[in-house]
Write a structure and sequence with these properties.
By secondary structure, this protein is an alpha/beta fold. 37% of the residues lie in helices and 16% in strands. The protein has two domains: 183 residues, Rossmann fold (3-Layer(aba) Sandwich); 126 residues, Glycogen Phosphorylase B (Rossmann fold, 3-Layer(aba) Sandwich).
Amino acid sequence: MILICFGTRPEYLKVKPLFESFKRENIPFKTVFTGQHDTLLTEVSFDWRLHIKNDYQTENRLNSVFVSVMKQGEEAIRELNATYVLVQGDTTSGAAFAMAAYHMGVKIIHLEAGLRTYDRTNPYPEEVNRQIISRIADIHFCPTKKNEQNLIDEKTEGQIFITGNTALDNIRDILTSESNKVLITLHRRENHAIAHKWFNEIEKLAISNPHLEFILPIHPNPSINRFKEDLIKVKVIDPLPHNELVELLAESKLIITDSGGIQEEASFLRKRTIICRKTTERPESLGQSGFLCRTPEDLPDLFNSVINYEVNGYCPYGDGYSADKIVHIINKLNIC
């Protein structure tokens, strides 16, 4: 039985396509919700829930997540009789759950394996989390050939397969158009200290481009949310459910973001994307749909150079049928 672990909205969106595919092929599985994003509680069902606690003699939030998930994950793995644990991506809860499985001798499947920046502070702590999982995983499902090569170069143990990214399974039937809208998302931890600089440059772009509608679904993190009153020309709205965010993405003229998942979705939907980060673990679309903006000061010139850029039609992250590929591999390996 495969025990699928998720705890954040991005994790859930990327494991969700597996649920129907597993059911259709009668692959036995159960789910564990780590509780890292507790707003998901009203939206999803699961077989077991963990509780993130802050009483393990540490004031550090990430340490609390890691200790809570390791300690309680052991019980979930044992009680649900898991023979495989599947974790997605690079979250702290995913790394902790994988480590709990490793210590118990339970095999690990890593979904979205092999992404790398080789800069442990960008993104922090995700770059270290995914490298931890790679060292102990038995099966690696990689979105791209480059991800596979990263694991090969690292002499990673376990079986490696290229499947595309399951995030695209959710949007393969989305129709696109092009309006005057510019979608903005900004939330990454490494941008918190300079968020005011990003927003200042974006506000100036909104002022100098009155024919465009700049829209920011504001992230609830206080380090980001506290700047919403400084934005006048930028339209600040509440966070959107994923289906509404994708609809906005599909009709936007340009995206300004520091999100990883949006880079993949934007590439699939052929949308110009400015990536507000020093580096990215998704370099495959750079120069096609994605353009790296390392500092806020670089944003105005880059914006003007790409606003009318013709996006290449090829998406390197998959074709929207990754879950089916994964099911085929699992059946072929006969692991259940």
